[in-house]
Amino acid sequence: MSNIPGRAVIAGVIRASACLIGASTVSAEQSRPAVEERVTALKQSIAASHARLRQYEWIETIVIRFKGEEKDRKQQRCFYGADGKVQKVLLSEEKAAPPRGGRLKQKVIATKSAEMKDYMESAAKLIQRYVPPDAGDIDSAKKREKVLLRPGDGRVRLDFADYIQAGDHMAIEVDPAANVLTGISVNTYVDKPEDELR
């Protein structure tokens, strides 16, 4: 895949909650049993949510911005099919009007547009590895001791370092009383760490 100048950001796909609570880190010896307990509770909550989610359908909106300009907006109706996989039906798609110019400029724009489309498809596939969180990936991070528990104001946050790939970070906020996931924040990249997706 060729290099795309600048940073591409997918908005509205990952963030379930924009506010994450900052708190002090618990020491490794103190937190290991708490991390084990919280990770187990998180996986149970995700499994229960997954089972409930299969009964619903929802509208997914993907907005692609490049250098601050909206380039693509797509809405899809999503639901689980009989095979257990998410099915998507396109509802609407809007693309920015191509800029005017000569043949050479149009050819450059077409090439860059194709590269951007490939890049964004790769980004969307990567994001689907994070949301919803996978029990196997959670277990893997826990075994590698890449999970920190950060208690907060009536909530706890589980921070996963190197969750899917080296240098990424995922934070899951949980309401411990209800054992409910309340927010997810992901920082990752497609090709290089400097091409961060949030």
Q: Helices and strands in order, then pairings?
A:
Elements: E1 8-11, H1 28-53, E2 57-66, E3 69-80, E4 86-95, H2 103-130, H3 135-143, E5 147-151, E6 156-161, E7 169-175, E8 180-189, E9 196-197
Antiparallel strand pairs: 1-2, 2-3, 3-4, 5-6, 6-7, 7-8, 8-9
Helix pairs in contact: 1-3
Protein model, in words:
By secondary structure, the chain is α+β, with helices and mostly antiparallel strands. The protein has one domain (8-197). The protein is 32% helix and 33% strand. The protein contains three helices and nine strands. The protein has helices at 28-53, 103-130, 135-143; strands at 8-11, 57-66, 69-80, 86-95, 147-151, 156-161, 169-175, 180-189, 196-197. A five-stranded antiparallel β-sheet has the order 5-6-7-8-9. A four-stranded antiparallel β-sheet has the order 1-2-3-4. Strand 5 and strand 6 (156-161) form a beta hairpin. The longest helix is centred in the middle third of the chain and has 28 residues, at 103-130. It is globular. Residues 1-30 have low confidence and may be disordered.
